[in-house]
Amino acid sequence: MEFGESARIAVGALRANKLRSFLTLLGTIVGVTAVIAIISLIQGMNAYVSDKLLSQGANVFTIDKFGFILSDDEFRDAVKRDDITFADAEAIAGLSRSAGAVKAEVERGDDVRFGATRLRRIPIKGVHGDYAEVDRTELLEGRHLTASDMARRRTVAVLGYEVWEKLFDGRPASGYEVRVGDAKYMVVGVAEKKGSAFGQSQDNFVIVPLTAWQKTYGTRNSLSISVASIDQASFETAQEEARAILRARRGVAPGKPDDFGIVTAETFMELYRNFTSAAFIVLVGVAGISLVVGGIVIMNIMMVSVTERTREIGIRKALGARRHDILMQFLVEAATLSLSGGAIGVLLGIAVALTVAAVSPLPAAVSGIAIVLGLAMSTGIGLLFGIYPAARAARLDPIVALRQE
Amino acid sequence: MAASEPLLVFRDLTKFYRVGEEDVHALAGVSLDIAEGEYLAVMGPSGSGKTTLMNILGCLDTPTGGSYRLKGREIARLSDDELAAIRNKEIGFVFQTFNLLPRSDALHNVELPLIYAGLGPKERKERAAEALATVGLADRMKHRPNELSGGQRQRVAIARALVNRPSIILADEPTGNLDTKTGQEIMAAFEAIYEQGKTVVMVTHEEDVAAHAHRIVRLRDGLIESDRTQEARRIEGPGAGSAIGRIGAAGD
User: What is the CATH number of the domain that holds B164?
Assistant: First the structure.
């Protein structure tokens, strides 16, 4: 018997018992909905995170005193290390051949004021070197800080988009003086809007020359150095060069670990992936349980269906249906049943993911793979749990089956 | 197949059922030949073994002992699937309770044997429609069983029995659920089938029904009590109407 006939019978049987079919499918629907929603949200987050982490550029790494700290012990050790200094940054810029752009930065929150408007605890970044290149900062108006600004400790500033918007209400700011803490800085430029990442604005900052920053806040702050390698291929080499230079400068004996940390976007990606894959496994496990429960319900209802249609099976067998034909018929019916549950689940899952994305900062990305996975999984469940009822139907003795009222 | 051998040969056919501790002999050794083109009635009181004989004849059941050859082929020891194939190809069943699929229309019900014979949808529909036309139901193809009268349902069943051109039409009390007039119509249909050269075996306990057959085999206690040929009663009057006069055309 061809597949088309089996499918026709299956659809007919489902239509004849619409409510029962739907109730039967609840488990499957919930399971597939969960899987699709979870996968969509996680993939959405993956895309978002990698997009944001790499916004600085895939070939940028950052060196600081602490590196990537995961425990209190590590932190206590790291505190004792020497600060990263201005001279360290200069050394890397001067000696590393693979370093394309080098930036040294230090940051502290302080109030920023213009006229009657005061913004509290705005990150004030003191920068030195090729900050615009490393951070890919574009300007809305004015100019960047120059090497001469930095060398001469000029009290000039580039405002982040959000700071500018709040202080200047959309009017040109270049040439005006703002107050940063107690010091006066002249605005020379405004950065373009970068948007937010992980719920945090990336436009809330004031950039000033590191030299000027140190004049205000002192020199006793460890710097972070960001390096963009000249190209993607030399990314690893640039890290090795920077490492060698710093170890030499800081007198780290061979065989001892670095007394500084190198962090790349990949470091964060790895941490993020570890976290999400754990969450992913747990959530898929939960969804898997509901699918198995759904499968058992399908098996149960297929047993009912076989019992109800014993006479039909007898008629079909009398007319020449072989075991295989009856087996196929009920397997296709079980698969059709669970596939329709899967389809409903896919639609609901997408709806849930999009709703979550709409009302929360979490993004969602519905992928074809997730949909195919959801449908394949539900069909597989139907087939798996349909085997036993279908085999029972196939084994029925036609005489006994025909006698059934 | 030996040229001389009848269509259907039973030799010392036995069938035991185990009920509790005891063996029940439903058939205690039946030998019977049925030639092609015969119209035979099997009679007997309940418990005589006629249902068992009919199940074995229809390849729904296998005998405990003895031999059953259909068209020269020994089929007493075939597997389930082999029996299914023979039922599909050689046997056309007509049941007392019609046994139509309630959710399928007449056309699809008649198509069923052809589906299991592996025919394509187009040819199936054509042949099923043709078979329905020969029983006078060309205008009822899209009706479901519950939209048809008892006589019409049995005619759908007859069309279904004929559609795959079987060697034997096997009818089990085909008029048992019908009123007298409708029963007459159905008997006329069987007569038409017989006249087209088909072999008809009918199981019944009604003398009136058996009277239409040319040969009556009576069973008692699992054995043949009598086996005689007779002058069959002919259907006369309006029952033998034109609608069923063409029966058998679908069976070549």
Answer: 3.40.50.300
